[in-house]
Design a protein that fits this description.
Blueprint lengths: L2 H7 L40 H14 L3 E5 L2 H9 L7 E5 L4 H11 L5 E5 L15 E7 L11 H10 L3 E5 L4 H4 L9 E5 L13 E5 L2 H14 L5 H11 L2 H20 L4 E5 L9 H7 L6 E6 L2 H10 L4 E2 L9 E3 L11 H6 L6 E5 L5 H14 L3
Parallel strand pairs: 2-3, 2-4, 4-5, 5-6, 10-11
Antiparallel strand pairs: 1-7, 6-7, 8-9, 9-12, 11-12
Helix pairs in contact: 1-2, 2-8, 3-4, 11-13
This protein binds pyridoxal-5'-phosphate.
Length: 381
Amino acid sequence: MDFETLCIHGNNNKYDNTGAISVPIFQTATFAHPGVGESTGYDYTRQQNPTREHLENILTRMEEGVDAMAFSSGMAAISAVMELFSPGDHIIASDDLYGGSHRLFHHISIKNGISFDLVDTADLSLIEPLIRTNTRALFIETPTNPMMQVTDLAGVAEIARKHQLLLMVDNTFLTPYFQKPLKLGADIVIHSGTKYLGGHNDTIAGFVVTRDKTLADKLRFIFKTTGAGLAPFDSWLLIRGIKTLPIRMDRQQQNAGVIARWLCQQERIKAVHYVGLESHPGYQISKRQATGFGGMISFEVDSEKTAHHILEGVKLIQYAESLGGVESLITYPMLQTHGDIPEEQREAKGINNRLLRLSVGIESVNDLIDELDRVLKETVQ
Ligand SMILES: *Cc1c(COP(=O)(O)O)cnc(C)c1O
């Protein structure tokens, strides 16, 4: 079955016999048992729920894994994965991480005795020197947020295999429509389902997918024990969102390409970071390991003042956190997603007071460019 069809028909199980086209929302906390010691397969919604299971089955097939778990947020998913580790363990992670992951690692995981080294994983040669006897895992984002650094996933998987490290990849930015890390050697894929998968800026969700049965069993145990499973209604919203994932992402990517090229020609724009530009350092690797570049752009303007003018002047594009939805959103990484990252570290990565991040939606690209053109002109006065 092709990916586009999977997104709509990826779950074969039927959960009722009315012929309903849309999966029912099983809004129940618990399930009655047919007899002593018997179960319908469903006992309690924290553990399993048919609507959530429908979604999880689709995700499993989209990422080509053996199991997927749907969480109440991307951060709940990452927090659950961190429960695989014990005090004394060491993890190497990309140094341009989503701000929430950075905060989890450095304020919570650290308290639990787990230590981290952050490194630019786009340069594979920097990883091996950091591996110690207690290193257990690599945590990769590619492309990264907001600087769009690209890590060679097959290359990093080879390092992980050689040193018997667990390879975890946050695949939020490209989704399995454009990139399948499990096929390239990752053990675990993580998502913020809030972004492209949900796609409508209306639901918070997260996923963990794995291709290893033993790992899946461990994660299922953590899942039911820590209790951050996605609610039935939110599961249904994700099922609905995923049906249109391919056409949304195609349009978002197409729009992003046009906008990125347009931004490159504007005098007041000093740098444009978009993986789909031939000049982007990760362009060739992206072509090799992914089937698309996605819809995320970050760009640096000429001054802090211009950055503020743009954020306050946009109307169609909205100044808001988050990404991946049908509505275009612009954010100020320095204050929003990366507000908790130490200033020095942030500046060194180029996340300065002139950097803006644009999540391109599915509006008419002409309207989006007209708006950007207008705000840029207004800031001249
Ligand atoms: C948003 C995001 C997360 C966190 O997900 P939530 O659903 O907001 O909890 C994790 N990783 C990346 C790359 C994200 O963009």
